[in-house]
Design a protein that fits this description.
- This protein has two helices and no strands.
- With about 100 residues, the chain is mainly α.
- It folds into two domains: about 60 residues; about 35 residues.
- The N and C termini lie far apart (about 130 Å).
- The mean pLDDT is about 85.
C-alpha cells in the first residue's frame, strides 16, 4: 500500500470521526433545547392554571356581578353627574343674576 493511500485513509477516518462527534454534540444540543422548551411550556401552563384559579376566586367574591356592565354603568352615572352639576351651576348663576337684579 502506498503512503498516500494510508494518509488518505487516515484523513478520511479523522474526518468521519469529527463528523460523528459533531453530530452527537448537535443532537444533544437539540435535545437540551427541546427539554428546556418543554420545561418552559409546563411552567407557563402552571402559571395559566394559577391565574385561572385566581380569576375564579375573584368572580366568586363578586357574587355573580358582571364587572363589564358595572364599569359601563359607572361611566354612565359619572356622565349624568357631570351634566347635573353643570345644570346646578347654571341655575346658581341664573339665581344670582335674578337676585342682583
Amino acid at each position: 500500500m502506498k503512503i498516500s493511500e494510508k494518509l488518505g485513509s487516515k484523513w478520511y477516518s479523522d474526518a468521519t470521526e469529527k463528523y460523528c462527534y459533531t453530530s452527537v454534540v448537535l443532537s444533544s444540543q437539540i435535545r437540551q433545547r427541546e427539554l428546556s422548551d418543554n420545561l418552559q411550556v409546563r411552567r407557563k401552563e402552571a402559571e395559566i392554571e394559577k391565574r385561572a384559579e385566581e380569576i375564579a376566586e375573584l368572580e366568586e367574591e363578586l357574587g355573580g356581578l358582571d364587572v363589564t356592565n358595572l364599569n359601563r354603568e359607572m361611566t354612565r352615572l359619572n356622565s349624568d353627574q357631570e351634566k347635573l352639576l353643570a345644570e346646578v351651576s347654571a341655575l346658581q348663576e341664573y339665581m344670582e343674576y335674578i337676585y342682583r337684579g
